Structures are given as C-alpha cells and as structure tokens.
Amino acid sequence: MRPKAEDLGGGLWSLPVPIPGNPLAYTLVYALESPRGPVLVDAGWEHEDAWDALTDGLATFGMEVADVHGVVVTHHHPDHAGLAGRVREASGAWIAMHRADAEIVRAFRSMVEQDAGRTWIADSLRRAGADDGDLADHPRRRHIDPPAQPDRELEDGDLVGLPARRLRAIWTPGHSPGHLCLHLEDAGRVFTGDHVLPRITPHIGLYPYDRADTDPLGDFLASLARVGDLAVDEVLPAHQFRFHDLAARTRAIAAHHETRLAELAALLGDEPRTLWRLTSALGWREPWPAMSLQSRQMAAAEAAAHLRVLERRGQARRTPGETLAYTTA
Ligand SMILES: [Zn+2]
Ligand SMILES: [Zn+2]
User: Among 27, 144, 284, 306, fewest CB within 10 Å belongs to which?
Assistant: First the structure.
C-alpha cells in the first residue's frame, strides 16, 4: 500500500509516487519549500502513474509542478532520477546530482546510442562462469531510458543552492558511485535515498564483475560509518518509511554484510570456484533455480562486491585466467 502525501511541517512534504510492477512499490519523493518554489529530493519512476501521483501530491498542498525550482537526485537509478527530466521540461527547474553519477548518466546515454548494452552483459556473464544454458534464458531486458543529464554536479560537502535553507550534500558511494545523502541542517533531518533504508539493504554490486579499480562494498561500509554519526532527529529514506535511530540502523546493515562476507569466505577452498558457482551456493531470497537470469546477474554482482572486500582483507584470491574464479588466499 502506497502511503498518502503528507505535510511533515517546517516546509517539507512527503510525496509517495508508485513504481509500477516493482516490489518496492513506491519512491518517497520529498518537496522542500523555498522562496523560489519547491525543490524536490528525487523525482520518481518515469511512468504516467508516477507523474500523476507527483503532480496530485504537489497539488494537495497548493503547489504545481510548473513552480518547481530544482530537483536534487540522490542517485541515477530510474526510481529516483526517472521523472527529473519531465519535471525540468514542465518547470525549467535545474537538476543536480553527484559528479560520479553524472558520469554514469553520460556513459549510459552513449551505450544506448551504440546499442552496446546486451553484448556487454552476455560477455560479462560468460566470463563469470555462466554456461550457454544460463545464457539461453537471457531475456530482453525491459527498456529503460537513461535519466536526464544534470545541470549541476555536486561534490561532497556542497550546499545545494536552496534559498534560505541549508541542505548539504554528503557523498555516500556504495549503492551507486555517486550516491548522495542530503542533510537538512536547519531542520535536523537527513534524506538517505537508498543508502539507509529501515527494513531492507540496498543492492551493492561490482560492475563489471572483475573491475579492478573499485570496491563498492568497501565504499558502502565506509559511507555507512560516515552518516551513522550524524545528529539528526529524523531519517527520510526514499523507500518504506521514516525512522529515527540512524546509528542503530547503520550498525545493523554493516553487521548484515559481515555475515554475508563470512558465508562467502566459508565457500572458498583450495580448488578454484567460479563466481557463478559461488553465487549459486549462497542463500538468496529466492532459491537459485527459480531466479531469473537478471536476478542471478545482480546476485553475481553482489557476490563479486563481497569477494572484492575478502580479497582486500587477505581472505580470498582470484585465480589467474580469463574466467573469474577464486580460492582462499
Ligand atoms: Zn537505487
Ligand atoms: Zn530506489
């Protein structure tokens, strides 16, 4: 059930917008009052129902989408950035996101232009150890348009240009390389996007699986520690519901990943096992045989992110060669 649009007081509104066909069900878009018009934190999925919910939600509180002054996007995912372009078209608003996610938007747009996405996915699956049987099940992914190119790129610590308010960008890479939490310093509140959610943990994946220069789970754990200390009265995530104890929640999410790291470490031995085999041996919400190829592909990216941390901690070693396989270190 999608909650109703809500006045949170202090010139802040919660506007839940649906994500049709997705178990997350809705994105919590927030509107912040400013003398130049409301500024949105995230915009929601690009879909007619989401657009209607956003415009109706604003109208409930006497605002129009044409009045929107700006959209700050916590990260480039379509349930957050999807509608930002349409809001900009309707209002002339600026769109802001972190530089690292702006780079991904540019790369995504050029990949779509070259129609290179599907070959890239099949190649990376094969190298992870998936066989032809796995790949035969390769569905045509639902087409998602790349998000709009932002007008402003934010860096860690920047104040978002929001007249008469203090909204500070906190760079929290992990779930996406340019994920931002936004600290509303004048109100003791923080918008956590997908970084800290009350009951679920965000997807942390390594893409491509053998990319050498990144450690998204390591980044994520460091980003959890960064926001865990913030003195705030209320946490405003992009899914589920608002909550209060940010420190406790960040500790619980970190503990969850330590458990996963230990599970994965226990699967390693002297004989190399491929990423695909290791992933299929881990516990997932759905049993491995029932998972779609797309779910398996995301699961492998999560396992790869955990293996990267184990490598860094000296508990796993990648076997030399084209196929991705690991042993204990
Ligand atoms: Zn996300
Ligand atoms: Zn999300």
Answer: 144
Find the CATH number of the domain harbouring 114: 3.60.15.10
Q: Residue 313 to residues 215, 218, 239, 301: CA-CA distances in angstroms? A: 12, 10, 32, 19
Query: Is 229 within a domain?
Result: yes
Ligand nearest to the CA of 17: 2
3-state secondary structure 92-126: CCEEEEEHHHHHHHHHHHHHHHHCCHHHHHHHHHH
Cα 176 to averaged position of ligand 1 atoms, centre (Å): 7
Predicted TM-score (pTM) of this structure: 0.93
Inside any domain, residue 286: no
Mean pLDDT, consecutive 10-residue segments, the chain of 329 residues? Answer: 95 97 95 96 96 98 97 97 97 98 92 72 82 69 79 97 92 98 97 98 94 96 96 97 98 98 98 97 94 93 98 96 94
Ligand 1 mean position, distance from CA 239 (Å): 10
What is the span of the domain harbouring residue 208?
A: 6-265
Distance 147 CA to ligand 1 centre (A): 13
Residue 38 resides in a domain: yes
